[in-house]
Amino acid sequence: MVKILFLHPDLGIGGAERLVLDAALAFKSKGHEVAFYTNHHDPTHCFAETRNGTFPVTVVGDWIPRSIFGRFKAACAYVRMVYAAVYLAWYVIPVEEPTLIFCDLISLCIPFLKMARGPFRVVFYCHHPDKLLTSEGGFFKKIYRAPLNWLEELTTARADKVLVNSKYTARVYQDAFQKIKDIPDICYPSINTEFFNTTVPKPLKEVVPVGLDKFIFLSINRYERKKNLQLALRALEHLKHILSESDWNRVHLIMAGGFDPINLENMEHYIELTDLAAELDIEDKVTFMKSPNDTEKVSLLYHCKALVYTPSNEHFGIVPLEAMYYKKPVIAVNSGGPTETIVNDVTGFLCEPNSESFARAMSKLIWAPELVDKLGEAGRKRFDTKFSFDAFTEQLDGILNRERQIISEVRAIEYEQRKKK
C-alpha cells in the first residue's frame, strides 16, 4: 500500500472532478490510501464520494478571492493553487510521505510541490491546455495572459509524468507546448461502474414531470456557454419541422446541468437558455434541471432514449461514456474526444455543429425504434471493450508501479553516493 495525494482546485460537479474521483477510486480499489486537498469544497454541490466520507477532503486557501472585481479569475486561481501547494510542501508531504501526488488543471502548483523533500513523484493530468481555454481579448487581455501562458508551459514540464485524456488532447498538447519534448501518455477516463450497478433508478416521475410515453432526449452538461447548449434547443425546434404532428407530440428534451449558485456564468446562461426556449416556442417540450444528484442522473440516463451532446472540440467527454454504459445512442459533434468514443452510425451519430444535422440524427431514432436498441447495444459493447473501469484502473496502477520503480532506482543511486562519501 502506498499513499496518494490529490490536489484539485474546486471539488464541484464537472468532468474534471469526476475524472480525479474515479482515479482515486481506482487507486483505492488496489488497496492504496488516498486523500484530497482542494481550494474549495461545498458539500451541497459535489459528487457523493467527497460528501459521504469515501475520501478525506482538506480545504486550503478558500479565503483567497476567486476574482478581483469580477476580473483576473485565472490569476486568482493560480494564486489559490500555489498557496495550497506550498501548504502541502511544508506541512503535509513531510508528514504523510506520499509516493504520488496527482494534480490537474493548474500546473503552476508543480514546482511548489517539488519544494518538499522526499522521494515522491508528481503526475499532472492535462485535460486541455489552459492557455487555449481562455476567450479572445484585446491588447490588455493578451498582456495579462502572456506570463500565465508562459508559466503554464514552464511548469507543466516540471511534472514527472503528464497524462492526457485522448489522442485529440495529446495533439493539442504538443501543438500548444512545443518546447516540451516529452510525449504525454494517453489515459482514457472511465466511469465508476460499481456505483451505476448498485444504484436503483428512480421512477421518472419522481425526477422530472415527464411521462414514460415520451421519446426523451437527454442533455447533461454544465450551464456554460462553451458547452453550446443552445444547439440542443435549436435542434429540437428544427425537429418540429421534420416530424409529423403525432411524432412531435411524443418528443421531450431534458437539459440537466451542473449549476453552481456562486458562478455568475451558470446563472446567466441558465436564464439565456430558458429565454431561448420561450423564443423558439418549445417551452413545453423542455425540462431544465439544475445539478441533479448522482441518483437522479442515473435515473435520467436509464429512462432517456438517447443522449444529445453538444460541445465542439470537447477534450474527451465523460457523459457519452455514461450513456453508452446504459445502452443509449449518443448524438454528438464530430470533433474532439467524442470522435474517439463514438463510432458514427454504429454507436450513435457524429454531426456537424448545427441544428439541421442534429435534428436529422434525432429524427432517425424517432422513426426507427429498433435502431435505438441496435446503437445502444453496440455502444455498451464498445464501452466494455475500450473504456471499462477495470481497464482504467489497470492503466493507472501500471503508471503508479513505474513511478515507484523510478523512486526505488533513485533511492539506490542516492544510497551508493552516500556510501562513496
The geometry reads as globular
Order of helices and strands: EHEHEHEHEHEHEHEHHEHEHEHEHEHHH
Question: What profile does the largest beta sheet have?
Answer: 7 strands, parallel
Q: Helicity range of the residues?
A: 40-55%
List the helices and strands and how they pair.
Blueprint: E1 3-10, H1 15-29, E2 33-40, H2 48-51, E3 57-59, H3 73-96, E4 100-104, H4 109-113, E5 121-126, H5 139-156, E6 161-164, H6 167-176, E7 185-186, H7 193-198, E8 215-220, H8 230-240, H9 245-250, E9 251-257, H10 264-279, E10 286-290, H11 294-303, E11 306-309, H12 318-325, E12 330-333, H13 338-341, E13 348-351, H14 355-367, H15 369-386, H16 389-420
Parallel strand pairs: 1-2, 1-4, 2-3, 4-5, 5-6, 6-7, 8-9, 8-11, 9-10, 11-12, 12-13
Pfam family, one: Glyco_transf_4
Protein name: Alpha-1,3/1,6-mannosyltransferase ALG2
Family: Belongs to the glycosyltransferase group 1 family.
